[in-house]
Amino acid sequence: MPLDLDAVGRENGPVPLGWDERDSLLYAVSVGAGQDPLAELALTTENSEGVEQRVLPSFAVVIGQQVPRPDIGEYDRSKLVHAEQHIELHRPLTPAGSVLTTARVAAIHDKTSGALVWTETTSVDAVTGEPVMTARSASFIRGEGGFGGERGTSPPWAPPRERPDREVRMTVRPEQALLYRLNGDRNPLHSDPVFARRGGFERPILHGMCTFGFTCRALLAHRGGSGSGTLSAMGGRFSAPVLPGDSLTVEIWQDGDDLTFRTRRGDGTVVLDRGRARLGPEPAAA
Predict the structure, then answer these.
(1) Active site residue 207
(2) Given 23, 82, 86, 190, which residue is catalytic?
(3) Which CATH class is domain 5-280?
(4) Segments making up each domain of the chain, as ranges
């Protein structure tokens, strides 16, 4: 069966979701924090003397992904890849918390060779009802295009200057995808060689959201470390796969509180493109 184009506007929720300090710590380590065990202690520990636990802003995606997505019809999951991700935090995340989250199919665009499905999740504080975060993600499903729908548009993007203000280099460990999947994304594309080959990959690839988390760490490192602030927004387009064991370089341009960025793997290929982020306020205490 093809995609259900009538799914646009379909919602699921609100669903109660919660997380604790262990979830926040696991996420940080799963996106590379702690490779130097004496660095990023605010992200990787909850009881280091004189260090208050912080939460990576990109953890917002893990929270929102716990909500089952509305049904969009049948398709081959091996043909689906994460295409874009955008988050907006209405307040800094705390190491533990609870929200009510609603997922909605925002759009299905016809890219001819495939379909681009946009999903939006909105989360409010479970007690006060105040907005906590909004996330928009796009999944590209190969072979599901050609249905005559709108293609959709993208805002223009270009680096503001030839040379970035900073480059942050990072290493993806060989077991990174196996660790990241413990956050809840058990898609076998990232762990099962047979499934990955069916999707056209020689071996399991890294979760796009793991690359997103690595990039978030780099943006905070540019600001001055995990203890000196956070991001209120971040987004970009996944343009090429990353393999566990690859190296990453995040190129960052800053204009006031606005950051433009892109991420390259070791061979120079851009893997996260058209990046924009906005610096945010100091995180609240746990």
Answers:
(1) no
(2) 190
(3) alpha beta
(4) 5-280
